[in-house]
Amino acid sequence: MPSPVTAWFERQPASIRASFFALAAAILAACFTLTIRFATAEIHPYQAVFLRFAFGLIMIAPMVMKSGLSSLRTTRLPLFGLRGILSAAEMSLWFMAVLYLPLAEATTLNFTVPLFGTILAALVLRETVRVHRWLAVVVGFVGVGLIIQPGSDAMQPASLLPIAAAMCMACAGMITKQLVSTESTTSLLFYLMIITTPVSLIPALFVWQVPSWTAIGLMAVAALMMNVMQICNVKALQLADYSFFVGFSYLRLPIIAILALILFGEVPDIWIIPGGALIIGAAIYVALRERKLAKS
């Protein structure tokens, strides 16, 4: 029998339930970033990446056991391998960005993933990208320029870390798009963890130090938050159209900015506002345009 709270929630309109899951995903994404900042204050980002994937592998094991080994059959291991390497690289770059940059800046620059995805779709997948999406990409990178201010004394080399992470994420996403047509959800998650765990262990060994129980606990919580966040994203997309969902994903920026101010005293640079507006606006337009073209 469902609990009274569950029964009440199920009676709510789909838009309300979708909003709950989408907002929960945004909050979890922000909390994940903050957790990584606390963890990498003690252990090297490479070691944190390994622990994140190792705990993710442990947490995915029950799903694999429930689905059975037959769900893992695949003929596309090379693509899985490349996706795993890119994902490990992306996570390493992102963890370093979280450590070395103000969190609001790192988060905003990482929103360039859809922009790089558009470029890769045109160059690698030979998709037709029309002028509207190219203009959105240009506008987005103007926003990047406002934030990092290339050529000026204000530019930090570390600002390139979240951009490089976004490039790796876009490449991994392009491969995922090819895999989802033939592979199960269980195999997508399992092969990601089973490949990224040993791959991320290699650089971690060069900087390894015995982590405290606090650091281990933080990374276990971070892995759990990522898993729950993915479930919330799926639930939200099952209840509402992507155009309804996409705006919620960018709510993690103000959440992170507020929490970073409270916890670390980080005051966002004034250029975050116009630059972030251009990047987020361009990313939303690209995402909605791709959704519309996919439907047609």
From TrEMBL:
GO cellular component terms, A-Z: membrane
Record keyword Ribosomal protein present: no
Subcellular location, principal: membrane
Family indicated by similarity: Belongs to the drug/metabolite transporter (DMT) superfamily. 10 TMS drug/metabolite exporter (DME) (TC 2.A.7.3) family.
Compartmental location: Membrane
Superkingdom, taxonomy of origin: Bacteria
Membrane-protein topology: Multi-pass membrane protein
Pfam families: EamA (PF00892)
Listed transmembrane segments: 20-40, 46-65, 77-101, 107-125, 134-152, 158-176, 188-207, 213-232, 244-264, 270-288
InterPro entries: EamA_dom, EmrE-like
Keywords: Membrane, Transmembrane, Transmembrane helix
Protein known as: RNA polymerase subunit sigma-54
Domain EamA: 18-148
